[in-house]
Design brief:
Elements: H1 4-14, E1 18-22, E2 28-31, E3 34-37, H2 45-53, H3 58-65, E4 70-75, E5 81-89, E6 92-100, H4 114-119, E7 125-130, H5 137-151, E8 155-160, E9 173-178, H6 186-193, E10 200-203, H7 209-220, E11 224-229, H8 234-244, H9 250-260, E12 261-271, E13 278-286, H10 289-296, H11 303-308, H12 318-327, H13 333-339
Parallel strand pairs: 7-11, 7-12, 8-9, 8-10, 10-11
Antiparallel strand pairs: 1-2, 1-6, 2-3, 4-5, 5-6, 12-13
Helix pairs in contact: 6-7, 8-9, 9-10, 12-13
């Protein structure tokens, strides 16, 4: 058994989301969003490099020796599955293992807004799940794919980096392809998928202009495209898509968004009360005529006002969602305060008053 499995088993037993290994510090576990060391010695350079090499294939080991980071999925001998990033830093080797649950969660178990389930009824267009790293985007998309797989007869092609949740075909056929293993780039993966009679294409990350352009083409030509962006609001997502493509395609991109973008789900993970895990809180934008007009007339800064008043369509600003979760006692108010934009709205709920800004009242 690879020696690294012992740390991963400990992390799984403790219910952590990530296991961090780095030279010069003991192994660390991320529990409910906070990083904490385990009782173990500081890891040495030769020791950690030996641990890492035990789990790398020959090709990945050669890539790592050549100075490249390695992204991969790893399954321990007892069946635990992890998304892995291995890298080098100033003091040597580092690795982060993200735990992947063995069972794909349902949208209901994630307590996501009911609208997310309704979005899975669409047959074409683009749905984006956005947020910073570690906010559960992959989990939300996996739950959406599982719902489609369970309820509809579709050809679903999932392009991932790396493959995380493993989908078994149910009502649908689910084809999972991994960047670097089965395809050179996401853009090439989308291009190939469009020749494979797809109904749904999941793009792990819209990370460059070529991928965005191909994903837009797929959505425009009758496919349902699901994807992610590392953006932290609906407005920033729309602006990122417009700015990502060449200036001469700006009007075309705005036209696509107005006609083919179905929704943007932006999420953060907020601690539950008494540190009982974390749950996703979502800002949701659903395309309508008003938002489409704002995009086409370069007035995206006015989109938040539409979200604020679009409750009948399932829309909600992040601050509205956070406030609602606080009042329902679903999240820790102090943690929610950290994610709020208009912090004055949240100050009366804060328990730890040291989090609030201090003002110098001296003359």
């Amino acid at each position: 058994m690879p020696r690294i499995d012992a740390f991963l088993k400990l992390g799984s037993t403790q219910g952590c989301s990530d296991v961090h290994l780095a030279v010069g510090v003991p192994p660390m576990l991320r529990m409910n969003g906070e990083l904490m060391p385990i009782r173990f010695r500081e890891l040495g350079l030769a020791e950690l490099e030996a641990y890492v090499m035990e789990i790398l294939s020959r090709n990945l080991a050669d890539r790592f020796r050549a100075g490249h980071d390695v992204d991969m999925s790893y399954v321990t001998e007892d069946g635990g599955r992890f998304r892995v990033n291995i890298f080098r830093k100033d003091s040597g080797v580092g690795a982060v293992f993200r735990a992947i649950p063995s069972e794909i969660p349902t949208l209901d178990s994630l307590a996501l807004p009911p609208l997310v389930k309704k979005l899975c009824d669409y047959h074409q267009g683009m749905i984006l799940v956005t947020g910073s790293t570690g906010t559960g985007k992959s989990t939300t998309l996996a739950a959406m794919i599982d719902l489609l797989n369970t309820t509809r007869a579709l050809n679903i092609i999932s392009l991932e980096d790396p493959i995380e949740f493993v989908h078994r075909s149910k009502q649908s056929q689910v084809i999972q392809r991994e960047l670097g293993t089965h395809l050179p780039t996401f853009a090439e993966g989308v291009r190939a998928a469009m020749r494979e009679d797809p109904d749904v294409i999941l793009v792990g990350e819209l990370r460059d202009a070529d991928t965005i352009s191909m994903a837009m083409t797929a959505a425009e030509t009758g496919h349902l495209v699901l994807g992610t962006l590392h953006t932290t609001s609906a407005v920033k997502t729309v602006d990122r898509l417009i700015d990502a493509l060449p200036a001469d395609l700006r009007e075309q991109t705005k036209g696509f968004l107005a006609q083919s973008l179905i929704a943007v789900i932006t999420q953060v993970l907020v601690r539950r009360p008494e540190n009982r895990g974390r749950r996703a809180i979502c800002e949701i934008m659903v395309m309508n005529r008003a938002i489409a007009k704002l995009i086409q007339t370069d007035q995206t800064h006015q989109i938040p006002a539409q979200l604020q008043t679009g409750k009948d369509l399932g829309m909600e600003l992040m601050d509205q969602a956070l406030l609602r979760a606080i009042k329902a006692k679903e999240v820790d108010p102090d943690d929610a305060y950290a994610y709020a934009s208009d912090k004055k709205l949240f100050s009366k709920f804060v328990v730890d008053r040291s989090l609030l800004p201090r003002f110098d009242t001296a003359d």
